[in-house]
Design brief:
The chain is mostly helical and 305 residues long. The protein is built from 13 helices and no strands.
């Protein structure tokens, strides 16, 4: 039992909502447009993305350990600063590296299986991109997350790409609707990373990790948070006004109080490395709730016909 808890901690399994829910949203949109439901394709794409995400989590742990980032982090918490299993002596770097590579290759393999099943070079390319971006987010020689593009990569991989991959699994093509629906979802995942960077500021500076917060500071990060939240909600409203997104997607506005709460906490505690932690939890909840509402909306549309 202790070993299971250790691996759940190491891989940060609960945080796979950030990747799995967008995929399910893509599946729901495709189904709502009259595409036949296929459990095999749906499960393959969900597990492929989940394995790639878990492998990425493990890779981040090992290479943030080797860079000294996690050791330098004095404000680690449940949401940032790594899983701490290496620092706590629960697992060795070698075990984490083996887990990372195993999960990443498993995700890549499942991605290739569904790509072959659908005869899609596009899906094969996206599976490979997920593998490479996941591993080299912190691994040398590229260390993408250290180059000032981490937030954009997270937006792209956990927003448009995750939703479109789920959509493609049933529709065997792409469409404007899932792309538009993916934008607010991707923005919210990006904001999870943004707020999680705030307690890590000093450690990231010491290890030359160029995050948004390192480059622009905590106070500007709060302004970016506010603007990004506004864009996320306006995007859905504009999509409905232009008759691209169905009116029911306006149910996303039900999460506005959560967004306001996150913004208030972030503004109040922006300069407090541990005070910001409740805002991180809040943005995770906001992403999950918003994506879940969109999923339920498109499932309802599929059932209504």
């Amino acid at each position: 039992m202790a070993a299971i808890k250790t691996w759940i901690q190491a891989l940060r399994i609960p945080f796979t909502t950030a990747s799995v829910l967008p995929v399910i949203l893509g599946l729901a949109i495709a189904w709502s447009q009259g595409n036949a439901w296929n459990w095999g394709h749906a499960l393959l794409v969900i597990f492929a993305v989940a394995f790639l995400h878990l492998g990425t989590n493990a890779a981040n742990d090992i290479y943030d350990h080797y860079s000294g980032n996690d050791a330098a982090n004095q404000y680690h918490n449940a949401f940032s600063g790594g899983s701490r299993v290496i620092q706590e002596g629960k697992l060795s770097p070698r075990e984490i590296l083996f887990a990372s590579l195993s999960l990443l290759f498993a995700g890549l393999l499942l991605g290739m299986v569904i790509a072959a099943s659908l005869q899609s070079w596009t899906l094969a390319f996206l599976a490979l991109a997920g593998f490479l971006c996941g591993f080299f987010y912190t691994a040398p020689p590229f260390r993408l997350g250290y180059l000032g593009i981490g937030e954009f990569l997270v937006f792209l991989m956990f927003g448009p790409i995750a939703v479109l991959v789920g959509y493609f699994a049933l529709a065997q093509g792409f469409d404007l609707l899932p792309l538009l629906a993916s934008i607010p979802v991707g923005i919210l995942v990006m904001l999870i990373l943004l707020l999680a960077e705030m307690p890590d500021l000093e450690a990231d500076k010491k290890t030359a990790k160029k995050t948004f917060v390192v480059l622009f500071g905590r106070e500007r990060a709060v302004y970016f948070l506010a603007i990004s939240l506004l864009i996320a909600y306006l995007f859905v409203g504009t999509g409905v006004a232009l008759r691209i997104m169905p009116p029911l997607t306006l149910l996303m506005l039900l999460t506005l109080p959560l967004a306001v709460g996150v913004l208030k906490k972030a503004k109040k505690h922006a300069l407090e490395p541990m005070g910001i932690v409740p805002a991180i939890g809040g943005i995770i909840t906001l992403h999950a709730a918003t994506t879940a509402i969109l999923i339920i909306t498109f499932i309802a549309l599929a059932l209504i016909g």
